Amino acid sequence: MPQDETRASTAHESTLFARLPAALAAALQAPAYATHLAGIDPASVTDRAALARLPVLRKGEMPARQREALPFGGFVPGAAGGFARLFTSPGPIFEPQRAGEDPWGGAPALAAAGFRAGEVVLNTFGYHLTPGGFIFDTAARALGCAVIPAGPGNTEQQLDLIEAYRPAGYVGTPDFLKVLLDAGRTAGRDMSSIVKALVSGAAFPPSLQAEFRERGIAACQAYATADVGFIAYETPGEPGLLVSDGLILEIVRPGTGDPVPEGEVGEIVVTVLDLDRPLIRYALGDLTAALPGGTRIRGWMGRADQAAKVKGMFVRPEQVAEIARRHPELGRLRLVVTRADEADVMTLRAEAGTTDAALAEAVAETLRAVTKLRGTVALVAPGSLPNDGKVIADERPVG
């Protein structure tokens, strides 16, 4: 990073961590967080090292937690009636809308994608029960845009809206933008007003990016979730995705809360500094890696929740992490599950600076103790396992 950008990043980091104690204090007002963070002194958590000592809260746990204490599982300080809107997202996970003009922090992402005040935006994210439509709607209106709340589907009617209102920008999935463009071309409709897009919620492969460019549309992508809002977004001409303001992003080894070195693939953990709806070390289950400088990530790189059922028992990333903890002399680990002679077979591939049989035997014993299943251990050269965040590889044939 240039020196001035590095200086700005350092100042921004300091500002975020100055706000963190207040967010922790707010979280402790919620009964479930009071238990989850018991014994924590908010005033002492003012840097990444201190934050990394706090326990993670996994998104995958939230449906069960919320069922135990509806609607929010005890992780929201206030009552449901104190929020403007109340949503549900797949899981189901119940979520309140935060306060403010741009509650999910999306206006900067739209601005980076070239959206400007006074333009018309076609919003094809859903408005029914889920927050997707409102996340992008509030962002566009905070920027000064007029929004067509189209939602997904109803292609023919959307073509009518495009010709009538002449939107300059589109927000929605990249797939549905292609559907609209193809339908417009087939029907001979004028779609030329759309010259920019901010897409999310689905893969955006280079082939589709190139197709949009050929059709005169500058499309950027954003990484956002229903519970957090905007996490990172593309800025044209720059690598990766820029981490959004107002949140602290960590990348940890899957199954743990331990930060990985810069550049290594791991699970995304976010801390949202909202006093009404704080999220503290919230593990999303998505994989990414930090780019040099720490303000950008590579984007979505897959899922971290890699549990596999082996011989009728679940094996989880947390168990692989426990093996690593017991054997600090090892590097990356990957548990490979295959089939042989109509039976499940586990092989733990472990980076090590030696091929000592005694070490392999000791690790195999730890594998059995932790998973309650037998498996073999293959010691491999340091750096030979892929840097992709995968700790369990299920390679059994499907079907």
TrEMBL record:
Q: Which InterPro entries match?
A: AMP-bd_C_sf, AMP-dep_synth/lig_dom, ANL_N_sf
Where do the AMP-dependent synthetase/ligase domain residues begin and end? 141-270
Gene3D superfamilies the record matches: 3.30.300.30, N-terminal domain of ligase-like
Q: Which ranges form a coiled coil? A: none
Query: In which domain of life is the source organism classified?
Result: Bacteria
Q: What is the residue range of the signal peptide feature?
A: none
The record's Pfam families line, in alphabetical order, gives: AMP-binding
UniProt protein name: AMP-dependent synthetase
Q: Which organism is it from?
A: Methylobacterium tarhaniae
Taxonomic lineage from the root: Bacteria, Pseudomonadati, Pseudomonadota, Alphaproteobacteria, Hyphomicrobiales
